[in-house]
Amino acid sequence: MSVGSRFIRRCPVGCDGELRETTVSLPEGCLLSCSSCGQLVSQIDESRYETALTQFNSWQGTLPPQSAQRRHNQRAARIFKRIRLMLGFDERRSLRLLDVGCSTGALIMSALRNGIEAEGVEPAEVAARSAQAAGLNVRSSMLTDAAYPAESFHAVTLMEVIEHLRDPGDLLREIRRILVPGGLLVVGTGNAASWTVDLMGGRWDYFQVERYGGHVSFFTPHSLGCLAARCGFQLEYLETKRVRFAESHQASPVIYRALKVLAEVCSIPASFMDKGHDMLAFMKKV
């Protein structure tokens, strides 16, 4: 594919490094790697990218299925607990949080249950209307168009959003503007330097643009730290979890269950070495 037809033509982190082909093969071409920071990017063209983005513009959006609701709530509660701890807020102190790319509002609902003043912004119109119909305070727009006053929030969450963006720097700088001094940005995304990537390469579903609605930019702990520094944040805490050897549709049920047990064992050392594929980063405004 020619450079001119690619959706991403330079490193999303803002590096001047050359984008070089990797051995991770996908239908749209091998993933490219920034020679400076190691960021991985897709060779997808703009038309196919725009089509893939429509996947979650629905009334259901990213609401978890009932079977996963408990796990979602537990993970959200851990995030909120760490936010309070890092900000020095106890349960009695009011905490204002904005969820950027909130879809139908699953994280906002969890935040409200945890006593947090939470609202959201979502550019996908159908998903935003669904959240509004559920009684949530959600604006249907891009964050950069929402015109929130400066220093409006103690914390901002950006969960499974940054990997969709060609140039995330503008978004992070706007988030910095609306955070109070010392406020926190929490970023959830995949880890392109994980053992899962080493083991699965292009077989990992997270790289599949149709399965995951427009994933085109893949961060490592290093490249995410570089982006944070460029946009006025200090990376304060980062964790990675989980390892995968195969997707459920790539193996028989018996083999998949066996591989899943093995992956759970490997997840323990992976978390200590920042090699898990689920990455969660807490960044402080500086």
Describe the 3D structure:
The protein is an alpha/beta fold. The chain has one domain: 3-Layer(aba) Sandwich (Rossmann fold). It is 34% helix and 20% strand. A seven-stranded mixed beta sheet has the order 6-5-4-7-8-11-10, sandwiched between helices. A four-stranded antiparallel beta sheet has the order 1-2-3-9, with no helix packed on it.
List keywords for this structure.
single chain, 286 residues, alpha/beta, Rossmann fold, 7-stranded mixed sheet, 4-stranded antiparallel sheet, 9 helices
H/E element order: EEEHHEHEHEHEHEHEHEHE
What share of the residues does DSSP label as strand, in percent? 15-25%
The helicity comes to 25-40%
Side by side, the strands of the main sheet go 6-5-4-7-8-11-10
How would you name the CATH homologous superfamily?
A: Vaccinia Virus protein VP39
Helix count? 9
Question: Quick summary of this structure?
Answer:
The chain is an alpha/beta fold and 286 residues long. The protein has helices at 46-53, 66-87, 106-113, 125-133, 143-146, 169-178, 195-200, 221-230, 253-272; strands at residues 19-21, 32-34, 40-41, 96-100, 117-121, 138-139, 153-159, 179-190, 217-218, 233-241, 278-285. The chain has one domain (3-285): 3-Layer(aba) Sandwich (Rossmann fold), CATH 3.40.50.150.
